[in-house]
Amino acid sequence: MPPILSKPSSAAPTSLFYITVGALMTVWSGIWYAYLRNNPSQHQLPYYVCFGFLLTGIVFLVIGFTLGPISRWARHAELPPQEVQDTVQQDPGYARKA
Fold it and tell me: Is the pTM here over 0.85, yes or no?
């Protein structure tokens, strides 16, 4: 088996990481915004930081949800053509050659 097909893709754990971090950032930014709304600050900086974290969390979620399908398309593109796979499966001497 070629080395590229034997190495598992790291896209699934990476996608899960982005989704988890994005969801946590979005939730905690929402909680922080609720706090800031109930306890107004004298400065605008906390609001900018809060919305920055909120938008960053949303971007991480989008990256995580789009990375999964992209990795599946890439894995499909890395596979050899179907004709080659059928030939390898039909060749009885292939197992002895390897």
Answer: no
Contact of 62 with 23, CB cutoff 8 Å: no
Write out 3-64 in H/E/C secondary structure: HHHHCCCCHHHHHHHHHHHHHHHHHHHHHHHHHHHHCCCCCCHHHHHHHHHHHHHHHHHHHH
The token duo for 63 is 């990256």
Residue 71's pLDDT is what? 75
Ordered by start, the domain boundaries in the chain are: 12-90
User: What is the Cα–Cα distance from 94 to 98, expressed in whole angstroms?
Assistant: 6
Q: CA angle, 29 as apex, 25 and 32 as ends, to 5°?
A: 145
Nearest alpha-carbon partner for 72 in 20, 16, 22, 9: 9
Residue 63 half-sphere exposure, CB side, CA atoms within 13 Å?
A: 17
Q: Which residues of the chain have pLDDT under 70?
A: 1-9, 74-98
Phi, psi values for residue 27, rounded to 5°: -65, -50
